[in-house]
Amino acid sequence: MRTVSRDYFAEMYVAGVLADGGWDIYFPRRDRGFDMIVSRPTEDGTLVRPVQVKGKYATIEKTAKGRYGYVGQLTALHDDMILSMPYFVSDKSAAPVHIAWMSRKEIKPSSRGFSCEPARFREGRPEPRPGFLHCFDERGLSRFTG
């Protein structure tokens, strides 16, 4: 049986949210780390941010966790990057329940590469951890507007 990956779905969902928020979206010709580059005009010029998307899909077997997010290798890093983590309740979800928008300084080195775990998993659903509410959904994305 073939495993289905919804990584591209997560990327397109995040691109749609960014476009709805007034960002222009540019996709690289080859994937060398960043899934997209986004820009938007400001009073001082143009704001440009590279974006990496890591979708999180809960499974039936998922147990409660105090920390939930991305742990692993990142193929590219940049001081102005956004690590976007859409949190889905299953691999069949039409939309995430939350999207975390994390800055480079919130991505920490770990024994498996890097870690960024702004959520927790309780009662079958992901939710923002206390202290990270400002990183989620519209409020989280607004931190990157200049």
Task: Give the termini distance in whole angstroms.
Answer: 46 Å
Q: What share of residues is helical? A: 10-25%
If you average the pLDDT, what whole number results? 92
* Structure annotation, total helices: 2
**Number of E-type strands:** 10
**CATH-level-2 architecture:** 3-Layer(aba) Sandwich
Low-confidence stretches: none
Shape annotation: globular
Instruction: Give the biggest beta sheet.
Output: 6 strands, mixed
Strand content: 35-45%
**Total domain units:** 1
Polypeptide structure, described:
- The protein is mainly β and 146 residues long.
- The chain has one domain: Trna Endonuclease, Chain: A, domain 1.
- The chain has two helices and ten strands, in the order αββββββββββα.
- Strands 1, 2, 3, 4, 6 and 7 form a six-stranded mixed β-sheet that branches.
- The chain is globular.
- The relative contact order is 0.18.
- The model has no long low-confidence stretch (mean pLDDT 92).
Summarize the structure.
This protein has two helices and ten strands. With 146 residues, it is mainly β. It starts with 6 loop residues before the first helix and ends with a helix.
Secondary structure layout:
Elements: H1 7-20, E1 24-26, E2 36-42, E3 45-53, E4 56-57, E5 65-72, E6 82-88, E7 98-103, E8 108-110, E9 113-122, E10 125-128, H2 137-142
Parallel strand pairs: 3-6, 4-6
Antiparallel strand pairs: 1-2, 2-3, 5-9, 6-7, 8-9, 9-10
